Structures are given as C-alpha cells and as structure tokens.
Amino acid sequence: MKKRDEYVAKMKAELDDLNAQIDTLAAKSKGAKKDMQARYKQEMADLRAQSGKASAKLDELKDASEDAWDNMVAEMEKIRDAFKHSYNYFKSQF
Fold it and tell me: Are 18 and 83 in contact (CB under 8 A)?
C-alpha cells in the first residue's frame, strides 16, 4: 500500500507542477499580439481539458483495486505523457 501512496503522491506532484507551469504560460500569453491571443486561448483550453482528464484518472487510480492497479498505472502514465507533450509543444510555439 505504501508504494501505491507514493506513486499517487508523485503523480499528483507532477500534475500540480504542470498546472503551475500552465498558469505561468497563461499569464505570459496575455502579452502576445492580438492575432495570436485567440490561438493561445484555444491551446490553453485544450491544456486545461487534458489537465482535467489527468486529474480524473488520478482519482480513479486512487480507488483502483489491486487487480486493476497495473492497467490503471499504464493509462495514467499515457495521459500524463500526452499532457506533458502538449504542454511542451505549446511552450515551444510560444
């Protein structure tokens, strides 16, 4: 059980960090040119949606049975990796 709790805490910390980085980018994007602000706003909405999906999966993971744990971890990591990739792509375009 301790390993599960550690994993969930680690994953929560990673998601919290990504969300903080998104907040920082959101603040910076407000200073962008008008023609880019609509695009940035849409990208931010997409990132927030991915964040919500990752948080929901983390909540499911917390309640996962022993039998479902390994599959849930794999799903959680795919969602987290997609979220990170999207964030890094957006950041590189900024």
Answer: yes
Q: What is the pTM of this model?
A: 0.85
85 backbone dihedrals φ, ψ, rounded to 5°? -60, -45
What's the CA gap between 5 and 83, in Å, rounded? Answer: 22
Q: Which amino acid belongs to residue 89?
A: Y
Alpha helical stretches, state H, 1-94? 2-29, 34-62, 66-93
CA-to-CA separations, 63 to 41, 91, 94, in angstroms, rounded: 34, 33, 37
Half-sphere CA count of 19, side-chain side, radius 13 A = 14
Query: pLDDT per residue over 37-80, tens digit each?
Result: 888 888 889 999 999 999 999 999 999 998 999 999 999 999 99
Structure tokens at 88: 């890094």
Distances in whole angstroms, Cα of residue 31 to Cα of each of 18, 42, 65: 21, 15, 46
